[in-house]
Amino acid sequence: MLAIIKTGGKQYLVTEGKELKVEKLELEDGASLELEAMLITDEEAKDVKVGTPFVAGAKVTAKVLEGGREKKVSIIKYKPKTRYRRNVGHRQPFTVIKIEKIG
């Protein structure tokens, strides 16, 4: 089974057993969550269900594996002839989830 889910303002194509790195979710490690599916289909795309925007009654069950932060991205601002230099770092938080069941 294939499904398209939406979380963190982004859409992901998922299958059962797939691990995803998504935007930070306020859940603890090992917690279970349910996401609504926007599209569900089988492997050969014979039986396709498309939602408006979500398929009625379709749920995708996932488990939170871990949370963390990405590698640091350096943001450098510079303006010539004015002695203006700024170096700021940013680390984006994320959550790793594993898709358990599509149905």
Describe this structure in words.
- By secondary structure, the protein is mostly beta strands.
- It has one domain (2-68, 95-102).
- The protein is 0% helix and 63% strand.
- It contains no helices and 9 strands.
- It has strands spanning 2-7, 10-15, 19-23, 32-41, 48-50, 59-69, 73-79, 84-90, 93-102.
- Strands 1, 2, 3, 4, 5, 6 and 9 form a 7-stranded antiparallel β-sheet that branches.
- Strand 7 (73-79) and strand 8 (84-90) form a beta hairpin.
Number of strand segments: 9
Q: Into which percentage range does the β-strand content fall? A: over 45%
Uncertain residue segments: none
**Proportion of residues in helical segments:** under 10%
Key terms for this structure?
single chain; mainly beta; 0% helix; 63% strand
Short structural description:
The chain has 103 residues and is an all-beta fold. The chain has strands at residues 2-7, 10-15, 19-23, 32-41, 48-50, 59-69, 73-79, 84-90, 93-102.
Describe how the helices and strands are arranged.
Blueprint: E1 2-7, E2 10-15, E3 19-23, E4 32-41, E5 48-50, E6 59-69, E7 73-79, E8 84-90, E9 93-102
Antiparallel strand pairs: 1-2, 1-4, 3-9, 4-5, 4-6, 6-9, 7-8
